[in-house]
Amino acid sequence: MKSFFKDLFRIPERERNGITAFTLIILGSMALLSFKDAFLNPPEPIPHEQLQEFEEWKLSEVELRNNEDLSQSSYSFSDKKSFSRKKNQGDFRMDPNQANFKELIEAGFTKELAGRLIAWRKSGKVFHFKQDVAKLKGLSDSLFERIAPGIALPDSPVLNEEKKVISEVKKVDINAADTSEWIALPGIGPAFAKRIVAYRERLGGFHSAVQLLEVYGITDEKWNAIKDKLEVKTLLSPTDLNTCTLDQLLCFPYLKPVVARGIINYREKHGSYKRIEDLLNTDLVDAELYAKIAPYFFVK
Questions:
Q1: Of 151, 106, 159, whose CA–CA distance to 133 is shortest?
Q2: pLDDT one-digit tens code per residue, 166-182
Q3: Which helix (H) or strand (E) holds 223?
Q4: 193 and 183 in contact (C-beta within 8 Å)?
Q5: How many structural domains comprise the chain?
Q6: Which of 160, 188, 210 is the last residue of a domain?
Q7: In terms of pTM, does the model score above 0.70?
């Protein structure tokens, strides 16, 4: 029995050398794959902006610790009570170019933002307008709105000019406006602008601004916000009722396929339309539908 197992597991020297070489090749390949990225894809250098931001962060952390220790030793309970009463009276004003750590906290800044603002200031940053403070990294819009009334700086004249331009926006020609003009209107973003232009192309133009309510997603609220800024300046280019094709009618949003085919069948059976009103004779176009489609057709 012992000789049987000995013969079973005996491997010739040539095969043993081959197995050893094969094992070394596998191990070498695995090592090469492990270190491939380190040799072939060295790490990219850190951008200058990120290095600068990191340095500002380190400076703000040091300033944060120093000023926090100072505020804990010098900011008494009576000071807090006095500030609370002063702030409630609406008298509190803070100059971000001169305020210390304690005053920034009183103004509503978090400890991290207060340290960062002081770090900015030490790097040479000067705040000329309230909106300059809003550029502080990490300061949310909602927090800025809360602290802005207490900042002893004027509003940005650029912002005031932008508000003036918005309030004096010119009217939009709904049959000629591109997506950028639609986006300039309140409540109309890029998606709505594209949707309006696409629907206008399917219709062949708007004959009334009220038709915008037919665009998916345009609510009464959105309509009321923009209706005074709209006008129909560019006129429609109506289609000849006697030469239009079935495919053209099938693309028209107001016409169902059965109605489009009925208009063509009526023309083939009774000859050319004499008047636009003859559409009412097809028995498929009622008065309501006629009022919607009549501006889009003419008869020679």
A1: 151
A2: 445 578 999 999 999 99
A3: helix 220-226
A4: yes
A5: 3
A6: 160
A7: no
